[in-house]
Amino acid sequence: MTRFTVNGQPIEYRLDPETPLLWALRDASNLTGTKYGCGTGQCGACTVHVDGRPTRSCQLPIGRLEGSFVTTIEALSRDRSHPVQQAWVAESVPQCGFCQSGMIMAAAALIDRNPAPTDEEIDAAITNLCPCGSYPRIREAIRRAGRMRSGEEQISAAPPPGVDPADAARHVPALSPAAAPKR
């Protein structure tokens, strides 16, 4: 058994200690915001924070995490008000969505350490791959999130619409036979 904290909650995983953190989060904890990409630690889609540091979860065995604190995209901010999430929307970064959660987690760790990174510092810290190539917008969103973090800028837009995390697991009643779509 492996014990560590995930999104502020103590967790005990009864999985093989060699199980990658990605699969413990997705399969055992139903935290599906962390994405499977390449499975080799290269693309960054699986990035989470481990003890405050961005970490590729697909290659990290849970047995190495005893006593650690893990934060996933679900806990970055439940209402999507984190500066990186707000700047991501304001700069129209998302396209296909493949890299988004990992990229946001890497960017959040960067602006926590340095709210005014240079392009070189952004490039060094954000090694995640974006298949859509939205890197110029990603850079600008990170700069903007840093300004927001420092109090130099505010975004008045509401968080993007979507499913409230508290509603994600709600039971949805089955359609009655009369309301079911015809095949």
UniProtKB/TrEMBL annotation:
Protein name as annotated: (2Fe-2S)-binding protein
Region of interest called Disordered, as start-end residue ranges on this chain: 147-183
Species: Sphingomonas parva
Pfam families recorded: Fer2 (PF00111), Fer2_2 (PF01799)
GO molecular function: 2 iron, 2 sulfur cluster binding; metal ion binding; oxidoreductase activity
Keywords: 2Fe-2S, Iron, Iron-sulfur, Metal-binding, Oxidoreductase
Domain 2Fe-2S ferredoxin-type: 1-76
Keyword Hydrolase part of the UniProt annotation: no
Domain of life the protein comes from: Bacteria
